[in-house]
Design brief:
With 560 residues, the chain is of the alpha/beta class. Among the domains are: 119 residues, Rossmann fold (3-Layer(aba) Sandwich), CATH 3.40.50.980; 151 residues, GMP Synthetase, Chain A, domain 3, CATH 3.30.300.30. Helix content is 39%, strand content 21%. The protein has 21 helices and 23 strands. A seven-stranded mixed β-sheet has the order 8-7-9-10-11-12-13, with helices on both faces. A four-stranded parallel β-sheet has the order 2-1-3-4, with helices on both faces. The N and C termini lie far apart (54 Å).
């Protein structure tokens, strides 16, 4: 903190952090706040143009980057962008953070005390930029009050996850993502337990095994991949055992929500599979995990029941960048799988006349940076935040279920309103599928573009007795397409005929951050994808539609 002061930064100045999740990220976050500064996260996957926009819009004076490649990219911006000419660039890889410690030794001992004493709950703490799925990212201003009050209200309700001396929390979600940041702040401010950092999920199994966390935070895709990998790696008789165990876990979890609970037979089956299958699955998570938090997107209801039945309760929640993370969550003793829980203390949620979810409370942001027009549009006349999400409440307890995005609703030529998210989420649960783009605006029926998961493809081919092939070849292979047709048919069973996918195409290339089809937070840039694949979308409607219902009974996602 003193080193940042030594660099000439004044209270209220903005400092950027561009790095994978790391101990240094957390250290710099709290050091900047102690120096009275405003932290601006930049995704480590950001392009030069994305970084330029954030750094100039936020008026960043100094940025700490992870490695030489990032330093080179940002350094080039300082030479070509006049507004960034005086930007200071420090690099963790060059041990510049250690240099900050040395530089801070010459700072007046009382300076940091004066700066922290001047902070109030209204003081700006961080500017977090939205994913920018529908346009240029907006800077969400969050105060120290937003951060502290939300953590103080949430932690006592989930001590098994965010508090207590026995808690060991492994963090691998990017800290530029508001959910990862919330957990970082909550665990540190609880002053108990241990917070671990790993940069990404490439060595996740080894990281989980060595750290042995009691709680993990991840996006739904991580939980899908763990399940799909377990299914694909189990071949022959072992695969049959795994799938029977999965069905048992799901049935057991569903029975927990009934008045009578699981039957004796189901308990016995579950106990047997616990020794054969579930204990191994829990060991993959490190052996100590009892709860995991899923956020950043919806988790399939079936997958939620599977993990709970296997002895790992998934606490799914809901929130936005504008709410500093969670405003509702399933609690350990109050869970309804398939929903995002009930409102947290200090947060209020209601539905507008059209079903849009409206939020207000202690975590709600103060406004968009340098964008008063967008700020005004974000709130109702009586001060409720418009989330843009559509939802409904269930049961006397008021569990919230998310049903789609207001701006993403597709209106077919027949006038049917279709939310693409439920279809896309269900299809992404198949081991072959990486990304899905559902289309159909002013079209006779709903269609979809699918991409293949390059990591899971070899496992799937092997488990189905097929020869190795590239993603490009697999996209054209009739056996792969037949499996995807079955997956589409199973997906269609959850919706009406008018909402079902009647035609689809498998693309030979995936959506990635690098090719501009995913945001840094891994959300599909719908407008960009629709424009780039406009010819493929047109072609969807010149072929014979797919029959929308399966001819067989529903099967496991991995059986396609």
């Amino acid at each position: 903190a003193a080193g940042l002061v030594a660099r000439g930064l004044q209270p209220g100045d903005a400092v950027g952090i561009m790095s994978h999740t790391s101990y240094e990220w957390t250290l710099l976050d709290f050091a900047a706040w102690e120096a009275g500064l405003v932290v601006v996260p930049v995704y480590e996957t950001s392009s030069a143009e994305q970084a330029r926009w954030i750094l100039t819009d936020a008026g960043v004076k100094l940025i700490v980057v992870e490695n030489e490649a990032m330093a080179s990219m940002v350094g080039a911006l300082t030479s070509t962008v006049p507004e960034l000419a005086s930007l200071q660039v420090l690099c963790v890889e060059r041990e510049d953070v250690l240099g900050l410690i040395k530089a801070g030794r010459g700072v007046d001992a009382g300076e940091l005390d004066r700066r922290t004493a001047a902070l109030t709950s209204q003081s700006l703490a961080t500017i977090v930029y939205t994913s920018g799925t529908t346009g240029r990212p907006k800077g969400v201003e969050l105060s120290h009050g937003n951060l502290v009050h939300l953590c103080v209200n949430v932690c006592p309700h989930v001590p098994e996850v965010l508090g207590g001396a026995e808690v060991r929390f492994l963090l691998f979600l990017p800290l530029a993502h508001v959910l990862g940041r919330f957990v970082e702040i909550a665990v540190v401010c609880s002053r108990s337990g241990v917070l671990g950092h790993v940069p990404d999920v490439r060595n996740l199994v080894n990281d989980l095994g060595s750290f042995r966390p009691t709680a993990v935070l991840a996006v739904p895709r991580v939980f899908e991949k763990i399940y799909n990998a377990a299914d694909a790696k189990a071949t022959g008789a072992k695969q049959k055992v795994f799938r029977l165990a999965a069905k048992t876990a799901i049935a057991y979890s569903r029975a927990l929500d009934t008045p009578q609970g699981p039957s004796r037979r189901l308990k016995a089956q579950r106990a047997a599979f616990d020794k054969l299958v579930f204990s191994t699955l829990r060991s993959v998570l490190g052996g100590q995990v009892t709860h995991v938090i899923s956020g950043g997107g919806p988790l399939g209801e079936r997958l939620g029941h599977f993990y709970r039945g296997a002895g790992v309760t998934v606490l799914e929640g809901y929130g936005l960048t504008e709410t500093m993370g969670p405003c509702s969550v399933n609690l350990p003793d109050a869970t309804r799988i398939g929903t995002v829980g009930t409102p947290l203390p200090g947060c209020a949620i209601r539905l507008d006349d059209d079903g849009e979810i409206l939020v207000r409370g202690i975590g709600t942001f103060t406004g968009y940076h340098n964008n008063p027009e967008a700020t005004a549009e974000a709130f109702t006349a009586d001060g409720w935040l418009r989330t843009g999400d559509i939802g409904s409440f269930e049961g006397a307890e008021g569990f919230l279920r998310i049903t789609g995005r207001k701006k993403e609703l597709i209106v077919t030529a027949g006038g049917k309103n279709v939310a693409p998210a439920p279809l896309e989420d269900r299809l992404r649960g198949h081991p072959l599928v990486s990304q899905v783009l559902v289309v159909g605006e002013n079209r006779p029926c709903i269609g979809a573009l699918l991409t293949l998961d390059a990591e899971m493809l070899p496992l799937w081919l092997s488990s189905h007795g097929l020869e190795e092939m590239t993603v490009v070849d697999a996209a054209r292979d009739p056996r792969v397409r037949a499996a995807l047709e079955r997956a589409v048919a199973r997906t269609n069973e959850a919706v009406s005929r008018a909402e079902s996918i009647r035609t689809f195409e498998v693309l030979p290339t995936d959506f990635t951050v690098a090719n501009g089809l995913l945001t840094p937070s891994l959300k599909v840039r719908r407008a960009e994808a629709e424009e780039r694949f406009s010819a493929e979308i047109e072609a969807l409607y010149t072929r014979t539609p797919l029959v929308p219902s399966a001819t067989a009974s529903p099967s496991q996602d991995g059986e396609g």
